[in-house]
Amino acid sequence: MSPRWDADPDVRRGRHVGYDLHVHLVFVTKYRRNVFDDAMLTRCEGIMRNICTDFDADLIEFNGEEDHVHLLVHYPPKVALSSLVNSLKGVSSRCLRAEFTGRVNRVTIHERFCSGSYFAGSCGDAPLQTVKDYIENQKRPN
After folding, report:
1. How far is the C-alpha of 93 from the C-alpha of 53, rounded, in Å?
2. Which 8-state DSSP code applies to residue 126?
3. Residues 6+ apart with CB under 8 A from 21
4. Which SUPFAM superfamilies does the record cross-reference, listed alphabetically (predicted)?
């Protein structure tokens, strides 16, 4: 007899594992500077979506405001969350600084785009739709 989770379409499967791991991540800009505009948020989402794919993870929801971004990521248990976060922050920072040189003042943010800290919240207790709705309703700058 197969386990109950075997029939659940939301549960991803590996060779020896079934999992449904989601994390709500929040990254803020250095000194909470208002750096992001709509074009930067759109590009940031694309970069982070590609990074998640490289980690066999899915970026389920993405949104942000001028000084921070929210992500809802579905990731496999083989991925160390800290490694995923380091890649998301590091690669996106390098790409955004290179592509938006006129918008990102390196002196203002002292060569670092994101703050060294971040928020990571397990989504086990909250219904995923609640977290998705929260992220979706974050204000995007006009």
Report:
1. 18
2. S
3. 74, 75, 76, 77
4. Transposase IS200-like
Q: In Å, how far from its chain's centre is CA 79?
A: 14
Q: What is the pTM of this model?
A: 0.82
What are the backbone angles phi and psi of residue 99, rounded to the nearest 5°? -85, -25
Residue 82 has pLDDT above 70, yes or no: yes
As a whole number, mean pLDDT of residues 79-101 equals 92
Neighbours of 25 (CB within 10 A): 22
Mention every residue, 6+ apart, whose C-beta is less than 8 A from residue 83.
Answer: 55
**Mean pLDDT within 60-87:** 95
Would you list the domain boundaries of the chain? 20-136
133 or 120, greater pLDDT? 120
CATH homologous superfamily, domain 20-136: Transposase IS200-like (3.30.70.1290)
